[in-house]
Each structure stands twice: as structure tokens, then as C-alpha cells.
Design brief:
alpha+beta; 4-stranded antiparallel beta sheet
């Protein structure tokens, strides 16, 4: 159901370009000393017009009936809710692929990380400790996961997104004007314009259909306090 030839061509171009980079590394005999990290900066554009953020496949054996109903966007992030510009999982949950020395082939992990972690991880790969930098280093190395030594480095890792501005003219809740915090399986989103919060248990509710903010009051307050204090400390 994707009918955007320009977007398809862009994806094909990225695919070809990555292939050329890897081929050149082999030709220059640099592949054994180079780590490649491939990751998107956000989820795909699309999925905004589905109220529950999800495409469901009908429980029918009929091939035609089982065809997904596309949301009309350029891409779709189902079963994740929403897309680019949103702090729902469809906007911030993306896969990461890495290859090269230090990395155990075939290793898979569900450890969640954020872009700030790359700096610490690359320093770890290069055996650089306590670098002299002026800014705060927020990231944490996930090298043990890449090496296959650990499946997870921190199952209660706290990460924060802060997006108090307008990304697009799409006027839907969850797109822009929001901040979020994830700690373990719990994720809280604060919507600046509405001044409201939503709480989700990600491992049990990856579609983010069930807001638990009025049920899990203690968890909601705890995450809201951490988010508020962290943002105050950074401003």
C-alpha cells in the first residue's frame, strides 16, 4: 500500500550507498578496524490518523481480508503508535544494527538505548577512559551487549526525550510539544499544551493503548518528578 515512488527511491539510494561504503572499506582493508552503526533518528512518517495507533489484521483465513489497511501515510510503524515527531513508540522506537570488530555476529538484544549512548560506547571500543570534555556525558556504553557478553546492560535505565516545540503542522495529540521519560518497562509522556500525562507499561502494551496514569499513581508521580527535576537541572 506504499505508493510514494520518491520515498521508495530515497530508501533504495540509502541501501546502495551503505553498500558502497562497506565495499570501499573492504577494498581499502579498513573493514577490520571500522565499526558501522546503522540507525534511524526517528520512526517513519505515518500512522497518525489511526486513533489507537495500530493496524490490526482481521482474524480471517481469506487472503484478501487479511490485507493490512494502510493508514495513508508514506510509511507505517504498526504495531507502534504514531510516527515521526511523536514521543509515542512509533516516533522514537527504531532498530539499530552494528557490525565490525568488538561485535559478536548474530547478537541480538532488547536493551533500549538512546543516541547519547553512542559516544560512550565508541570511547569504550577505543579503550579511552575519562575523556576530557566540557559537557556532561549522559550516555552509557552498551559495548558488552554488542560483544555478546551481556543481553542487557541496564534493565531499569532512565532515558528522557524533551521536545517543547513544533515539528510540523499536524495538529494531533502526541505530535510535538511533549516530553517523555522511560525507566525499565514504564514510560510517561507529558503533553505541554494539554498539561496532561500518560503512563504506559511498554512490555505489556507496546501499542500504548492503555493509559495507566490514573491507576498507577505512585509510578506516575515518581516518573513525573524525575522528568521535572532533570529538565530543571539542564536549564
Amino acid at each position: 500500500d506504499h505508493k510514494d515512488p520518491t520515498y521508495a527511491a530515497m530508501i533504495a539510494s540509502v541501501d546502495e550507498s551503505v553498500g558502497r561504503v562497506m565495499k570501499t572499506l573492504d577494498e581499502l582493508k579498513l573493514a577490520d578496524n571500522t565499526v558501522l552503526i546503522f540507525v534511524s533518528d526517528n520512526g517513519g512518517v505515518g500512522g497518525y490518523d489511526r486513533p489507537d495507533g495500530m493496524i490490526r489484521e482481521p482474524q480471517s483465513k481469506d487472503a484478501a481480508a487479511k490485507k493490512h489497511k494502510h493508514s495513508g501515510g508514506i510509511t507505517d510503524n504498526a504495531p507502534l503508535r504514531s510516527g515521526k515527531g511523536s514521543l509515542y513508540e512509533g516516533g522514537i522506537r527504531v532498530p539499530m544494527i552494528a557490525a565490525g570488530p568488538h561485535i559478536q555476529p548474530g547478537t541480538k538484544s532488547k536493551q533500549y538505548i538512546i543516541s547519547e549512548d553512542y559516544f560512550s560506547t565508541i570511547l569504550h571500543m577505543a579503550s579511552i577512559q575519562n575523556p576530557t570534555v566540557r559537557q556532561i556525558v549522559d550516555g552509557k556504553s552498551f559495548l558488552p551487549v554488542l560483544q555478546g557478553k551481556q543481553k542487557n546492560i541496564d534493565q531499569k535505565k532512565t532515558i528522557i526525550w524533551h521536545y517543547p516545540n513544533n515539528w510540523t503542522n499536524i495538529d494531533l495529540k502526541g505530535i510535538s510539544w511533549a516530553s517523555a521519560i522511560r525507566q525499565g518497562d514504564w514510560k510517561l509522556i507529558y503533553f505541554h499544551k494539554q498539561q496532561t500525562v500518560e503512563l504506559y507499561h511498554i512490555s505489556n502494551d507496546i501499542e500504548e493503548l492503555h493509559d495507566l496514569s490514573r491507576v498507577e499513581l505512585t509510578k506516575t508521580k515518581a516518573l513525573a518528578n524525575i522528568l521535572t527535576q532533570t529538565l530543571k537541572d539542564r536549564t
